[in-house]
Request: fold
Amino acid sequence: MEKLLQMKGITKRFGDITANDRIDFELNKGEIHGLLGENGAGKTTLMNILYGLYTPDEGEIYINGAKVEIKSPHDAIKLGISMVHQNFKLIQSHTVIENVALGLKDTNFFYPNRQIEKEIRTFSEKYNFKIDPNVPVWQLSAGEKQRVEIIKAFCRKARIFILDEPTTMLTPNETRDLFRLLKFLREEGISVILITHKLDEVMNICDRVTVLRGGKKVGTIDIDRVDKDDLARMMFGQDIILKEREEYSISFDEDIVLEVRDLTVFSDKGLPAVKDISFDIHRGEILGIAGVSGNGQRELIEAITGLRKVARGSIKILGEDVTNVGTKEILNKGVAHIPEERMRVGVIPSMSLEENIILRSYDKSPFSNGILLDYSVISEYAKELISRYKISALDEKIPAGTLSGGNIQKLILARELSISPVLIIASHPTQGLDIRSTQQIHELLLRKKEEGCAILLVSEDLQELMDLSDRIAVMFNGTIRGIIDIDRASIEEIGSLMVGV
Amino acid sequence: MNFIIEILKATIPAGTPLLLGALGEIYVERSGILNLGVEGMMIMGAISAFGITTMTSNVWLGILTSAVVGGGMALVHAFNSITLKTNQTLSGLALTMLGLGLSGLIGKKYVGVPLPNKLHNFPIYGLKNIPFIGPILFDQDPLVYVSYALTFIFWFFLFNTRFGIELRSVGESPEVADSAGIDVSKIQYLAVFIGGVMAGLGGAYLSVVYAPAWIEGMTAGMGWIVLAITIFSLWRPERAIFGSYLFGGIRVLQYKLQPFGISPNLLNMLPFIFTILVLMLAAKEISRKRISAPSSLGIPYFREKLL
Amino acid sequence: MLKRYKNIGLSFLVIFLGLFAIYLVSSVRPDIMFRSIALSAFGSIYGLTETLTKSIPLMLCGLGLSLSFRSSVWNIGAEGQLLMGAVGATWIALYIMPNAPKFLLIPAMFLVGAICGGMWALIPAVLKVKFNLNEIIVSLMLNYIAIEFVNYLVYGPWKSPYEWGFPYSTKFPESAQLPRILDTRVHYPTLILALILAVILYIILYRSKLGYEIRVIGDSIDAARYAGLDIHRVVFLVLLLGGGLAGLAGVGEVAGIHHRLRVASGISSGYGYTAVIVAWLGRLNPLLIVLVSFLFGGLLVGGDAIQVSLGLPGSTINFINGLILIFVLVQGFSKTRFSTIKRRGGK
Reply:
């Protein structure tokens, strides 16, 4: 086998955190190479270095045996490296053509669109899939957007394709199509690096796999010489055993906490994003919302929390109508909200932990007397929550932005759960977190369920939904395609509902 | 009829400095940078064009100098906002203060000095005889024709070239452009520089063609009106021409109304009141058509960011 | 760390180049210019009192701006708000209650001046909230409108018949004139008011509910929305308060110094713009702003002096102000906040 790429002794530090610790990585020509590890293992960092988005603190990269310096994506592209990121690097308001044309240096300077359109059509005929080159990208589904990314890489004549967790956003069918396409590419002599934390995918499609753990390399191995258990052991180490939920059972009261009826909400673009949705959540129930991202989940949550106007329909909390009454009033009914974008929305990174902790209650006694804030009370309260929720922080005066992702999420949970909520709205609560924080957050949510909270859990992680929910509602294209009791749910069934079958 | 032609004909030169400035600022904002220093760059363009023309008696040399000076000042803003990633609003304001101050310093000796040479009207043979629009559009000075051509060029490059795609992408999403191998800083530097060149030219037009004279602070808020026109044009060069001539028309109206005994101070308010009205109109259109400013306007781009 | 030193080097380079430009244009040596500025502003009792006098409007405007800047509301309209305050005071003093006793008239002038300034600042607030208009451009346009309005008044309806054709309003009655310290121009009631307000603003910003809201909105508008803060209310309040403070400055100028309304450029030599720099150099901290405004008061006094002694035009100080603002920027006094790093959009 021909060695196409070698990365030697790559080290990357972010402040005190060593994201990559002397990692070696090799890639052959025409192979699909899995890069496996749990979240936070350093996979994406390593690939961002290869793609020139980060500069490594130490280490060297060789392509075809020659040492290369990759200082920017520009350099990477010139060397034939392309990356399909988890958050697609597409410009939403631009058309497919314009997105593909961006960065193609060998197109005509004038009217580049005409030439690109031809190339897109050729490519889509060759590999047998449909795409309209003239629509703006925001109108495409996640799977289609990913195809645009792959066409982009292909048009750049890339020899190395890096795909970062490509199946997270895809339905089972779209995943099958993607894998078919990757095999085509392998036959063309293209090398693919597949970043993933899913063992099945690695077993399914990869030729070799490199496992990372805690920023260090565990090993590289041929896929036909290992099984899933071996990989799991490499991935998690010996001490953590995968915990399975023993039995799926439903348990909740009859009292309805959240009642949504015929809800219709519009997106930023003015199109209906949520269409005539109705559902209930009961005391002590976790209702999971499954679905590919972008099918109206975000708008649904924003409508319930008063951040987005309800066009039609009603929302009741404990029997009280809260349709379009404003965020503050809704939150004051005892609604906790764990937002999707924790860094941008959930905390104010520049402000101290204590000031973040009072974000919801700063105007209430004992923190405020109506005009002034009592910082000694606030400080005491913050200290208590920091220790109760096991947030690792120097003290309550440091800026929230200096905490790790897991600690920031715990900070948000501490703030939201300490108001003794009746309803918790959790949006992707464990996305991007390490396994220990994920478990802690799951335990917190289950404890609140036992205390009688109603919980709306939106997640793209089907396993998480299966582990926590009592019932799962599948959202597709702004509608709910069915609410399934957990004891009768299967991942396959949910998967097919997610595509709208 | 002749009266209308006369007014419309006067409107075009009155709107030309605004048009030149707005074309440039559209490119700047399309690249995601907000340059509030248009006023400063314009006035520096005005004084440098006036100074050089006075010294050399060559109007075109003066105009060329103003472009260089405007571009040079813009590079200060580019350095602040792209390289140092400082607050763009403040940097723009600083540029305005620098420009107003320095032009006053330089211009002290040019106050009341007559310009030795000016651009004369250059009617275009044939075209000027087209009824109605001929005398309005084609009996103007050469720089006006240049502004027509520039409007077309700015439109064409923005929407029909590789550079245009790159420029718009950088302003919409520098991350995406960066990961596509586009040198974000280079594009932004170029756009800000073009913006400065155009603002400089706008200022030059004011001092060596339109006035022609040097008066301290003669831009009198035009730089800020340019920013309003940029918004009004929804960041499209072909719309900027309407916005600019609209304000040109207001200025002409201001002069035409003076003989009727209305206080000149009240008339002077007109363009500024009108700016606010125009912005309200644009805001309505923006929300109706769901257009938005370039998504990353005014936000510095950091490649390696925290989470 | 290296970067920090590089920035310090850079910012001094900026100042050096700027001063060199002044030298090239006017052949005045920078050391002589600064000596002249420093001596005239801080070198004598008279200079110090003039510096103090000029620092009063800077202080009030800078304090007002700090609130709105802290909440990321870009009010650049202090100049116009100051002028409207001056108009309000003149209106009260000459037309509404000219015969009222001092103890009634002066508080009424301050009150109405503050209301006028505040109302003028409410225009960008309303347009921002209702139409999503950029407050920078609107507040700037309102400066120009206010300037023309003041000039209209003194050339037109409010022009005094007793001033030999000068564009002045009638002189204020004695009861509308602020007391001064001895024979200086320091109108101390305004100064005391400004100092008290600085302390109050400090408490508001760092110890009150409103201040907390201001800081949350300034640092992360998304988090503010998520927590259900009433953002519109805060935008209204910071502009109203900021405009009110600038209005007070305008009252001080006409009632304490000129004793009449005169053309806009005579009332304010760009205090509202200089105050933008004062606010940022004072790191938006009300107590620091008090100190910084004294320095800039000195710069303005020096600016007047070098016109006379060195023949430099008044715009020299504009230029130096611009240089200082660049210096402030390069030094990183106003580093882009954490929150703006993380962009909207994405997935």
